[in-house]
Amino acid sequence: MNQLFTHEGIRRTVFGPGCSAKLAEEVKLLAGSRALVVIDPHVLAAGVAGPALEALGQAKIKYETYSAITREPEPAEADEAARLGREIKAQVVVGIGGGSALDLAKAASALIANEGSAVDYVGLDLLKKAGPPVICLPTTAGTGSEVTFTAVFTRRADKFKGGINGRLLYPHTAMLDPKLTVTCPPYITAIVGMDALTHAMEAYTSRAATPVSDLNALAAIELIGDNLRQAVAHGENLQAREGMLLGSYLAGLALAQAGVGAVHAMAYPLGAFFDIPHGEANATLLPFVLRHNLIACPDRFASMAYALAELPEDLTTREAAEACVAEVMELSLDIGIPQSLNELKVPQNQVPAMAAKAMTVARPIANNPRKVDAGDLENIYREAFEAE
After folding, report:
1. What is residue 388's predicted lDDT score, i.e. its pLDDT?
2. I need a labelling partner for 270 at 20 to 30 A (CA). Which of 15, 330, 354, 374 fits?
3. Which residues, 6 or more positions from 289, have their beta carbon under 8 angstroms from its beta carbon?
């Protein structure tokens, strides 16, 4: 093996049903007595995070909540959360919710320590100082934001989607409590679960894949294949929820280690132009990009197929690779994912603009296992329209 790679990331992981009630202990481990809690407004209203917040109060940890979070948040929301964090002199930042809340928590921490606004740091490794340590409690199993160094924003006014990225943005602690995910609605469970599958599959086929990311990616694919249907069909199935949360976590680790590919690049314009949620965009596009990429690494596609589903052992590599795409499409159909861009009401005349914008998402395009240009992306988009 002639490969050079570096791994870094989250420092501490706490996993298990009910572990969110130990949030105060984790804050105290970080010598924190004042916390900013960035929490999804729906999660706050539903009381899902009650045990975690009650633990803070019982431990006499002073905290303020920031919950003015929109779907696919704007940079100004991070600025406002950071302003509150500075005002209360937060020593720890806690994120509770889906990817938007966790991304905002990471960005707010960074902006507490770095002057300026979120828009000033959109790019790679532009942060100069580490902010207060971040503890992430995901309430969905899909984004992997609890272990990544990215905080993504959408500027709707200029149809831009991009993120703050860099090693100083890694959370300190991930608290993975499956009980926080049981009230996640079926459709959200489906699209974020497919988002996690996208992370794992794109990391496994990435040009930057490593032996460590491969282990995490394949384990994630197997967990998602075993549990996603059950989590969608019966949300109170704690075993399925536990499997999905662990799968999402491992997929996030693989993503952080190896990066993602053209699915993510092509999903960005759908969010920026048409306000389509990131997970929904990834879930819809995944089968079409897989089909395009298959010839670049059929052996890896074959490995993913056997991780995702029970298949005959005597398949040729090509047969198993093609079964991978077929199994993803079948899973997608079973759990109610849109089967074409028509279902997302994307105007087909925007394909050239979407492809051009996707090509500017440089790192995922570079990571894609099959070299692509704007014409290739246009063709994939059009196939996604013609799927019906």
Report:
1. 57
2. 330
3. 261, 262, 263, 266, 380
Q: Contact, 16 vs 241, CB < 8 A?
A: no
Share of the chain above pLDDT 70, in %: 99
Farthest-apart Cα atoms in the chain, separation? 63
- CATH class for the region spanning 186-385: mainly alpha
Q: Which CATH architecture has domain 12-181?
A: 3-Layer(aba) Sandwich (3.40)
Position 157: which residue type?
A
Task: Provide the 8-state DSSP code for 167.
Answer: G
Listed by start position, the domains of the chain span: 12-181, 186-385
CB count in 10 Å sphere of residue 114: 20
In whole angstroms, give the CA distance from residue 24 to residue 88: 18
Report how far residue 217's alpha carbon sits from residue 220's, in angstroms, rounded to the nearest whole number: 5
Cα–Cα distance, 158 to 223 (Å, whole number): 39
Place of tokens 């079964």: 323
Q: Is the CB of residue 134 less than 8 Å from the CB of residue 90?
A: no
CB 247 within 8 A of CB 227: yes
Q: H-type helices in the chain, by residue range?
A: 23-29, 41-46, 50-58, 75-87, 99-113, 186-204, 211-233, 238-258, 262-274, 278-293, 298-308, 317-334, 351-359, 362-367, 374-385
Instruction: Say if CB 47 and CB 96 are below 8 A apart.
Output: no
Q: What is the mean pLDDT of the chain?
A: 95
Q: pLDDT tens-digit profile of 90-106? A: 999 999 999 999 999 99
The CA distance from 189 to 193, in Å, is 6
Confidence of residue 259 (pLDDT cuts 50, 70, 90): very high
Residues 6 or more apart whose CB falls under 8 angstroms from that of 82 comprise 107, 108, 109, 110, 111, 112
Residue 141: Cβ within 10 Å count: 33
Beta carbons within 8 Å of 169's beta carbon, 6+ residues apart: 106, 107, 110, 127, 149, 150, 151
